[in-house]
Design brief:
The structure holds two protein chains of two kinds. Chain A is 11% helix and 39% strand. By secondary structure, chain A is mainly beta. Chain A folds into two domains: 449 residues, YVTN repeat-like/Quinoprotein amine dehydrogenase (Methylamine Dehydrogenase, Chain H, 7 Propeller), CATH 2.130.10.10; 151 residues, Cupredoxins -  blue copper proteins (Immunoglobulin-like, Sandwich), CATH 2.60.40. Chain A starts with a helix and ends in a 37-residue tail after the last strand. Chain B is an alpha+beta fold. Chain B contains five helices and five strands; from the N terminus they run αβββαααββα. Chain B has a five-stranded antiparallel sheet with strand order 3-2-1-5-4. The chains are: A mainly beta, B alpha+beta. The interface between A and B is medium-sized, with 20 and 18 residues.
Chain lengths: 671, 191
């Protein structure tokens, strides 16, 4: 995006120069995108976005968190940020990255760059199983389970990939999450000097196979490509189901300052990939395929029918397939048009072998063969979404606006200009936009969210770290009109790219606590009496099973020896929603959060003798403050008093005739 | 009231037996507690052989006032009731084919005894759980007895207690058995 920012600066400078030439002093032209809303519109908008206390939003907005490495979740239409799903970055709020389970998943990485979340689909519609998100920085892809909205798997780094940007796009039945490398590098993690970029560097697009039952991802196959920069992609639908599309820039194969060197050609390419053919070629593992860093890689020059290149507008970002799967839309950022291609015409051209040339052996289709119309949407078109009612919505970065325009079929000789039916200013510099179910076969057609890259003073002052802005736009046409209506704006932390706007009913199976029966952790315990602490003197390891329930831990006291490695498996035995417990170990930089019904493992070395309290960090009850215990780190040479076991259940009354049990308040001192 | 034909008598007692038998698997009694934090309510439903509902959560909350945990194993009633229901159903079914007054009287007396036992024991348990509170508990509350029937209040909770099919159907069975017994008496007098 930074190239565009520079581009904008350039354009602004040019505009200022022009103004300077023609300006009379004292005249200040009105900025086009600062129109205020009429009172009636304000009232209507307020009611449209207001979700009164106790009511639910209708949609989940799964925002990519950009270089925060997370997924933000907001409700629509209120636009309230509701919660954050940590994915690539530790998140103390939910203890993510502090327990052994999530630490292992993060694999030592401390950040990621989430760009394009993709919800799993069945028959081309969201099915509420998983959300796939890419990491543009460390070449990974993650899967969030929509049942508990937690990250379940991080796959990667994906070999032969540098900057997993063209990702994640899910095929119609979630057979694959497709990803593409942004940067081209020498294949197989080898070194080649940058001077050999055009010949020895290669790009790759990758099929990440998704297990239909478990959702487990694995690298299926890769297609080697010329050293272009792959940008963003889309999967086909319906008739184009077997195909996927990626945009490229820098087809000049340039290095150095790409701002200029990669913008010399008038056109870049859309890659047209038959992922089913790629799957077959990889499975056959025949001629034209080879292993690179353990991945079955396909050379599309040698395996015909896997990949084609189609010229498109210069430096494109988005390529998008309409709900019918018949039309493919690609917009070159540096040209004021969105190009509409016919998938059928593409297939006809492929069948006729109507190629104008090749790039490293990959056939290049003729632009005109596939073209239906160049729609003059406006300046800086980036990304397109759909409403299922025959319209497309394209974000205009430079113009800071959303264009609404008509999809084919077009009448013969139709005026391209007349296809743009409305335009609405946004504040400012919109990158991606998302409509409700906008990349499925059945968009809902009611809401659109513009994710703006700049907010430039729209909010109260935040210091120089200016937040991004997101704006909610009504595209329902409820009053019979064709106009889009600005409803609401909000701010997000850095930095949303794409999002998925998913109806709440799609997540109807989402749970609010983990049922005890589903906890298969070998060290889970459900009663205080089962708490246990054992020490292996030979390995100097202490292992404990800890029981947490309102409002105490069992044991309330753990003794270890200075230098011991301590492993605690902590079970939150609650079976009620929102009864979350934390286990914060004072002065140890440790805190894990355990959801109801969950068991998590905390590991640390007790380096220095002393007494260290532990306490519940996530507010749980009226006696939350009392939920605490002590870790005694005994100096070397001092005898240890091992924990002898729990004192039965919670602080329940003893029956008068039953033998007196120690009071719960004495738990800590009874042994 | 006319005397019942043999066929009707048999049928009535078999129905009574079936009603008691099926009640083994039906809820006897329940209580629902609602508060601001639990708008959907916390449920406790007592079956002849088990207690179901949000028992874990109720126990967690109850422990703050020192109440004993509710658990199936604690209640001898849950072992007695299924056996008693089964025995009474068997006696009623047998009475259908034994045209003697004592054959009907026996299960009827048994059912009456069971009803007295059931209500008395429920009354006792409600009292016991509200009174045998651990003095070491975090919160001291005055002892209480939750209501067996109808709306009531416990601390921040609004409660509703109700009887259910497992109680109603045996009552219907009892009425049927009583009608048969009355008929048997009339028949013996008219002979």
């Amino acid at each position: 995006m930074s190239r565009v920012r520079y581009g904008v600066t350039g354009l602004t400078a040019l505009g200022l120069a022009a103004l300077g030439l023609s300006a009379c002093s004292g005249v200040k032209p009105e900025a086009p995108n600062q129109r205020t809303m009429a009172t009636g519109d304000v009232q209507a908008a307020a009611l449209a976005s207001y979700v009164k206390p106790g009511d639910h939003d209708e949609y989940y907005l799964f925002y990519s968190g950009g270089h925060s490495g997370q997924v933000f979740v907001a409700g629509v239409p209120s636009m309230r940020h509701i919660f954050t799903i940590p994915v690539f970055t530790p998140y103390p709020g939910t203890g993510y990255g502090y327990d052994e389970e999530t630490k292992a998943m993060l694999g030592g990485y401390t950040w990621g760059d989430v760009h394009h979340p993709a919800a799993s689909k069945t028959d081309g519609d969201y099915d509420g199983r998983w959300l796939f998100v890419n990491d543009n920085a460390n070449n990974r892809i993650a899967r969030v389970d929509m049942r508990d909205l937690k990250t379940k798997q991080i796959l990667g780094p994906i070999p032969n990939t540098m900057g997993n940007h063209g990702s994640s796009m899910v095929t119609d039945n979630t057979e694959y999450a497709l990803v593409g490398t942004r940067f081209s590098v020498p294949i197989g993690s080898q070194y080649a000097p940058l001077e050999e970029y055009a010949t020895r560097y290669k790009g790759a697009v990758t099929g990440i196979k998704v297990d239909p039952k478990s959702g487990t991802m694995s690298v299926g196959w890769q297609i080697m490509t010329p050293p272009f920069n792959w940008d963003l992609g889309a999967t086909g639908k319906g008739p184009s189901n077997d195909w996927a599309f990626w945009t490229s820039y820098n087809t000049e194969r340039a290095t150095g300052k790409l701002e200029a060197s990669s913008t010399q050609r008038d056109r870049d390419y859309v890659a047209i990939v038959n992922w089913k053919a790629a799957e077959r070629a990889a499975a056959a593992a025949g001629a034209g395929t080879f292993l690179a860093s353990g991945i079955r890689m396909i050379d599309p020059a040698k395996v015909p029918g896997v990949m084609y290149l189609l010229p498109c507008g210069k430096s494109p970002h988005g390529v998008d397939v309409d709900p019918s799967g018949e039309y493919v839309v690609c917009s070159g950022k540096l040209q004021p048009t969105s190009t509409v291609y016919s998938f059928k015409k593409i297939q006809d051209a492929i069948a006729r072998k109507s190629f104008t040339g090749e790039e490293d052996g990959i056939p290049v289709l003729k632009y005109e063969d596939a073209l239906l119309m160049e729609v003059p949407v406006g300046l800086g078109p980036l990304h397109t979404q759909f409403d299922g009612k025959g319209y497309a919505y394209t974000s205009l970065y430079v113009e800071s606006a959303i264009a609404k325009w008509k999809l084919p079929p077009y009448a013969a000789g139709a005026d391209p200009k007349a296809q743009v039916v409305d335009k609405i200013p946004v504040q400012f510099n919109v990158g991606h936009l998302v409509t409700a179910h906008g990349d499925t076969r059945h968009p809902k057609g009611d809401w659109l969210v513009a994710m703006n890259k700049m907010s430039k003073g729209r909010s109260i002052k935040t210091g120089p770290s200016i937040p991004e802005s997101s704006q909610l736009i009504d595209i329902s046409g409820k009053d019979g009109g064709i106009k889009m209506k600005m409803i609401y704006e909000t701010y997000t932390e850095p930095e949303p790219h794409f999002a998925q706007l998913v109806h709440k009913d799609v997540l109807k199976n989402t749970i609010e606590f983990y049922p005890k029966a589903e906890n298969h952790h070998p060290r889970a315990i459900w009663a205080g009496k089962d708490a246990k602490v054992t020490r292996n003197a030979a390995t100097r390891t202490v292992e404990g099973t800890v029981f947490a329930v309102r409002s105490y831990f069992e044991p309330g006291r753990i003794q270890v020896q200075e230098g011991d490695t301590v492993v605690l498996h902590i079970t939150n035995a609650e079976q009620a929603r929102d009864e979350i417990h934390g286990f914060g170990l004072v002065a140890f930089d440790k805190n894990i959060i355990i959801d109801p019904g969950e068991t998590k493992t905390l590991k640390f070395v007790a380096r220095k003798s002393g007494v260290y309290p532990y306490y519940c960090t996530n507010f749980c009850s009226a006696l939350h403050q009392e939920m605490q215990g002590y870790l005694e780190v005994v100096p070397q040479g001092t005898a240890l008093t091992m924990y002898k076991g729990g004192h039965g259940e919670m602080l329940f009354a003893r029956r008068p005739e039953a033998p007196a049990a120690p009071k719960a308040a004495d738990h800590a001192s009874a042994h | 009231m006319p005397t019942l034909t043999d066929r009707t008598r048999t049928l009535a007692l078999l129905i009574a037996a079936a009603l008691v038998a099926v009640s083994i698997f039906l809820p006897l009694w329940g209580m629902t507690l609602v508060s601001t934090q639990y708008p959907e309510g916390l449920r406790m439903v007592v079956y002849p052989s088990r207690i179901v509902g949000d028992i874990h959560e109720l126990n967690v909350l109850n422990h703050y006032v020192g109440m004993m945990p509710i658990s199936d194993g604690f209640f001898t009633e849950l072992r007695i009731l299924p056996a008693a229901f089964a025995a009474l159903a068997a006696l009623l079914a047998a009475a259908a084919f034994v045209r003697r007054r004592w054959a009907v009287l026996l299960p009827l007396v048994g059912m009456t005894a069971l009803a007295v036992y059931g209500f008395a024991s429920m009354r006792h348990r409600l009292w016991q759980f509200g009174h045998e509170l651990d003095p070491a508990a975090a919160i001291d509350i005055p002892p209480f007895t939750p209501a067996m029937f109808g709306l009531h209040e416990i601390a921040q909770f609004a409660g509703y207690s109700y009887f259910s099919w497992g109680t109603f159907l045996p009552m219907v069975a009892g009425a049927l058995a009583a009608a048969v017994l009355a008929s048997d008496f009339r028949r013996s007098r008219s002979l």
